[in-house]
Amino acid sequence: MRPLQGVVVVALEHAVAAPFATRQLADLGARVIKVERPGSGDFARDYDRIAHGHSSYFVWLNRGKESVALDIKSTGDRAVLDELVGRADVLIGNLGPGALERLGLDAETLRRSHPHLIHCSISGYGQGGPYDDRKAYDLLVQCETGMLSVTGTTDEPAKAGTSIADIAAGMYAYSGILTALYRRERTGEGAELRVAMIDALSEWMAQPATVAAYSGAGPTRSGARHPTIAPYGPFRCGDGTIFLAVQNDREWEALCRDLLGDGALAHDRRFKRNPDRVAHRDALERLVVEATSRLPVIEVEAVLDRGGIAHARLRDADELLTHPQLVARDRWGDVPVPGAESVRGLLPPVQLIGDAPRLGAVPSLGEHTEAVLAELGMQRRR
After folding, report:
1. Is 66 helix (H, G, I), strand (E, B) or coil?
2. CA pair distance 301, 174, nearest whole angstrom
3. Which of 15, 38, 320, 373 has CA atoms 20 to 30 A from the CA of 246?
4. What are the distances in angstroms from CA 312 to CA 300, 320, 327?
5. Are 68 and 372 in contact (CB under 8 A)?
6. Domain range annotation of the chain
7. Which of 317, 319, 291, 323 lies closest to 304, judged by CA?
8. DSSP assignment string, 227-296
């Protein structure tokens, strides 16, 4: 028995945010029926052709789902969708500003006849306000929330390297749906959930915004260094670079003693407390580099381990595939894709001990249409 076995999700989704949420549900055993436009489908299918001829985004986000191709503006296919919604536990959509309302698929309309339904809509900027009708894509939401103001170097802002606004919205939608399912178990009532990308990423920006509110100036971009903790960031070694992080005064004392070879330095007035270390960051980092640059990375790691100082190597994306910690814990699995060998996929981040995760196949466009129609006892009418 999978944790969400028996839960039926109808997904009117594309791109990243909603598919990210529903993939988590599918991994837990929910039946996710992805409704796609005939002929083209989810436009994320065409982002690239990297994964054995399939989009890297699509195979990441859509494993374990059923694809049903419906033209929901036609009478016959709309009847199929209405039947699916009537049997669903959850409907989720991120079709664009006002699209669900124009189609009569908004929560107010659907829950009048389906009070048990959990209706989740994901938008860029939420309902109400001057941005109501704006389209929203990940980079644009990063801009609007100030994420680029804290990401990059002092000379140039940079977007985060992954779709963090979409992922944040998808994660809040996922956790909100789980919360609504739990409440429905107790009350029998469905729910209306609204998730806005700007709200999700604003939550992630709350700490820098707090700095801005109470310091009189927002945090500055600091590249790969932490803006308000020191030493915390990259340091050159004899044969590469290591990242280290000192979180408290005890760790700073250990770093001075074990790596810098000068325990008294921990009590230098320039470096005694973290705000002092940040204020004198340049002088501090010169002292650390003077020590690390004389040693290879592996020896610096050994010293930091002895002192209980957190550290990391800078790895490329392809090194993630062979990361020793992920390999040792068997965190990679095989995900079947249409017309090709499988692709590698990560197991779900949350491990339910004793419950093996499911890595379902990535569907081809409309692969399950006929089977679903037969299950509903319906035929397509145009």
Report:
1. strand
2. 38
3. 320
4. 11, 13, 17
5. yes
6. 8-204+328-376, 232-315
7. 291
8. SSSSSEEEEEETTEEEEEE--SHHHHHHHHHHTSS-GGGGG-TTTSSHHHHHHTHHHHHHHHHHHHTTS-
CATH 3.30.1540.10 fits 232-315, yes or no: yes
Contact 206/272 with Cβ under 8 angstroms? no
d(CA 34, CA 58): 12
> Distance between CA atoms of 90 and 105, rounded to whole angstroms?
12
CB 86 within 8 A of CB 378: no
**Can you give the pTM of this predicted structure?**
0.92
Residues labelled catalytic: 226
**In whole angstroms, how far apart are CA 88 and each of 27, 82, 112, 312, 357?**
18, 10, 14, 45, 23
If we measure between CA atoms, which residue out of 349, 360, 356, 355 comes closest to residue 175? 349
Where does 8-204+328-376 sit in CATH, by number? 3.40.50.10540
Cα(131)–Cα(222) distance, rounded to whole angstroms? 30
Q: What are phi and psi of 254, to 5 degrees?
A: -65, -40
